[in-house]
Amino acid sequence: MNKLLATLIGTLFATAVMAQTPAPQTPAVVKAEASANKANAKAVASEMKVDAKADEKANKAVAKADEKASDAVHDAKKTKAKAHAKVVLADPEDKMTEAAKAEHTNAKANEKANKKIVKADAKAIKATVDATADKVEAANKTEATKAKGAAEVKEAAAKH
């Protein structure tokens, strides 16, 4: 029973200490908090704007890469179709030669298409990395602004 009573009394005192109202803030602290809140809101809005632009930039680059890849595959198919048509139209004694040429043409068309695809993908990846870097930089600026505001509020509170 004594332990229960001691716990209840301890809780009562702890609650009484926690329930005390904080001291009223000075005008300098209020002004510093308002300034910090305004700067934080501005920094967050700026960060969101940078994020949106970076995402748009990355998405455009990926779409452009997809389009280039599609064009490269289409060009390769056209080249292969022309080579196949030559084989079909060739005389019976020239069919073997034309078939060999067609295989060579197919290989070159595939190589050319793959080069275009790799180049387009590399550009898209670079744009995505740049966009991510822009986002991180904006986030760092926002964090710095928040930290600066918090420091100014503490400084104003310490002066008074």
Automatic annotation (TrEMBL):
Q: Which organism is it from?
A: Rugamonas rubra
Q: Where is the composition biased (Basic and acidic residues)?
A: 65-78
Q: Is the keyword Signal assigned to this protein?
A: yes
Q: What residue range is the signal peptide? A: 1-19
Region Disordered: start-end pairs: 65-85
Q: What is this protein called?
A: Colicin import membrane protein
Q: Which keywords has UniProt assigned to this entry? A: Signal
